[in-house]
Amino acid sequence: MKKTLTLAIAALLLSAAPATAQKTVSVDNNADKVIEWWNNSKAPHSNEETKDEALNKSGHFTHTSQTVFYLFKADPAKATGQAVVVLPGGGYSKVCIKHEGFGMAEWFKENGITALVVKYRLPNLGHREVPLEDAQAALKYLRDNAGKLGIDPSKVGICGSSAGGHLAAYTSTFTPKEEKPAFAILFYPVITGTTWFTHQNTFRYLLGDNRTPAEQEYYSLENRVDETTPPTILLLSDDDRVVPTISSVLYYKALKDHGVKASMHIYPSGGHGWAGNEGFKYKDEYRRALLDWLSIQ
Fold first, then answer.
1. What does the alpha-carbon distance between residue 256 and residue 82 come to, in Å, rounded to a whole number?
2. pLDDT category of residue 243 using cuts at 50, 70 and 90
3. How confident is the model at residue 3, as a pLDDT?
4. Which residue of 45, 163, 188, 192 pairs with 236 in a disulfide if CB–CB is 3.0 to 4.6 A?
5. How many helical (H) and strand (E) elements, i.e. helices and strands, does the chain have?
6. Residue whose C-alpha is closest to residue 294's, from 100, 80, 128, 131
7. Which of 132, 161, 156 is closest to 142 using CA atoms?
């Protein structure tokens, strides 16, 4: 009887013990500093991910449960005082950190702009608040450490590609006025949830399988723009078959309707996913346009 009771108590204790944390993985990088920020147990919200993180040969993270910042600090001799949070894309089902993250950060750094690439926690079919709080934490990190980093806290912007572009625009529109980024750079962003004009899987992973039309409309970011939305530049390709260019046009129109300074560049070809890619045909053109625009922010 005593042995049976002991076993029963042991079984009860095991069942009450917290689940083992998901394994995380690291990626090769040239960052000046890597900051492991928080995970699901420490962040304000959890994405309730149960699978271990994974990283494929293309540099795409999946099942992210830990937020990591990769800092690329501009040379003080070149520094403009600006800094930018960089959010790679991946349809909210992965984080494509290689080109859209590190590739863009290296370029920003070379041009005097400190960059902070975010390996953000994915929404895992409905935890919409999780990637937003990671992006907001990255903005706060740069502002809080502005003195050490040699940046102006009033010149901290945000940059995102594809679903990362949605996250950048999401942060630009859902964040309280005093905490919003100073500017936004959006590469071929997912903006609207309107049928035919969007990338449906991005909204599926953000809002879940049971999302309603009202929720999809609420997170269609052209509907969230107001006069406090930061100045924005949109960069896209006319032949993008993943995210229709009309998605960005709707956002641009909303920005202009609310008196927000905005610029939009549509290149003839290139498809989707070219930010930070050295092989993009219009690389020189978009980089020149982006530097010109940043010079007046």
1. 24
2. very high
3. 42
4. 188
5. 9, 11
6. 80
7. 156
Q: Which two tokens stand for residue 161?
A: 């590609």
Q: What is the pTM of this model?
A: 0.93
Phi/psi of residue 172, each to 5°? -70, -25
State whether residue 80 is helix, strand or coil.
Answer: coil
Cα torsion angle, 198, 201, 202, 206, sign: positive
Q: Any residues with CB less than 8 A from the CB of 17 and at least 6 apart, and which?
A: none
Label residue 119 left, alpha or beta by phi (over 0 means left) and psi (-120 to 50 means alpha).
beta
> Regarding beta strands 262-267 and 232-237, do their DSSP bridges make them parallel or antiparallel, or are they unpaired?
parallel
Output the pLDDT for position 16.
40
Give per-residue burial for 203-234: e unless 16+ CB within 10 Å, then b.
Answer: bbbbbbeebeeebbeebbbbbbbeeebbbbbb
Q: Which domains does the chain have, with CATH numbers?
A: 30-294 (3.40.50.1820)
Residue matched to tokens 């590609």 = 161
- The 3-state secondary structure of 122-159 reads CCCCCCCHHHHHHHHHHHHHHHHCHHHHCCCHHHEEEE
pLDDT single digits (tens) 51-75: 999 999 999 999 999 999 999 999 9
Beta strands 83-87 and 156-161, pairing class? parallel
Whole-number percent of the chain with pLDDT over 90: 90
Dump pLDDT digits (tens) for 142-178.
999 999 999 999 999 999 999 999 999 999 999 999 9
- Cβ–Cβ under 8 Å, residues 171 and 189: no
Angle at 176 between CA 186 and CA 93, to 5 degrees: 45
